[in-house]
Design a protein that fits this description.
The protein has seven helices and ten strands. It is α/β, with parallel strands linked by helices and about 210 residues long.
């Protein structure tokens, strides 16, 4: 049975954030809000938690996982960022974007796309997500909470509790955070290509 924390969406309670981070560090799977939708998250080094997330979402090994990072300096630890990518990331983060970049050696191979060796990178504009990443001291391995057979992520914390109570370790109720996915930008040789238009405006990527 999952723990259930109600965390203020603007001023997250530090006590609850610290308890949530301890669950992540202990290998737990956590449901938490971002600026686009609810997500499933775990600590980057926890292989067992990653496999649980794969089972919950019925994902194959070609799924692009995402690292939720605190800032640009942390991104450069896990992704190879060229000049164009750096300028765009600086302008568009935090925000509702996922950037697909070549992974560095700091990213476990099981998180990388098996052929392209890429990793998704996010800096969400959500106080709870940022508080979790900041307290953790590193990125959260993350994927949108879309269950098999669904096109949209779950958005109601009570419904999430009903559906996933036995499959995750913690559900963070941060209120309604929407169902629109992020805008996904793939960088190929430092050239950006929008492969999915979502919540993040695409106009800054077209100039």
């Amino acid at each position: 049975m999952a723990q259930y924390f109600q965390i203020h969406p603007v001023n997250p309670q530090l006590r609850l954030i610290r308890q949530a981070v301890e669950i992540l560090r202990d290998g737990g799977v956590v449901v938490y809000p971002t600026d686009s939708a609810y997500a499933l998250g775990c600590n980057i080094g926890e292989k067992g938690a990653l496999e649980r997330i794969r089972r919950i979402r019925d994902l194959d090994d070609k799924h692009n996982f995402t690292l939720v990072c605190r800032d640009l300096s942390e991104i450069s630890t896990y992704a190879k960022v060229g000049n164009t990518a750096y300028r765009l990331l600086k302008a568009l983060t935090p925000g509702a974007y996922t950037f697909i970049l070549k992974a560095t050696s700091q990213v476990p191979r099981r998180l990388q796309h098996p052929k392209r060796k890429t990793i998704g990178i996010r800096v969400p504009e959500n106080p709870i997500a940022m508080a979790l990443s900041g307290e953790l001291g590193g990125p959260i391995m993350s994927t949108t909470l879309i269950l098999p057979g669904s096109d949209l992520p779950l958005s109601d914390p009570e419904e999430i509790r009903e559906r996933l109570d036995a499959q995750v370790d913690l559900i963070i109720d941060g209120g309604h955070c929407g169902v629109e996915p992020t805008t996904v930008v793939v960088f190929d040789d430092d050239r950006p290509e929008v492969v999915r238009a979502g919540k993040g405006p695409v106009e800054p990527l077209e100039s």
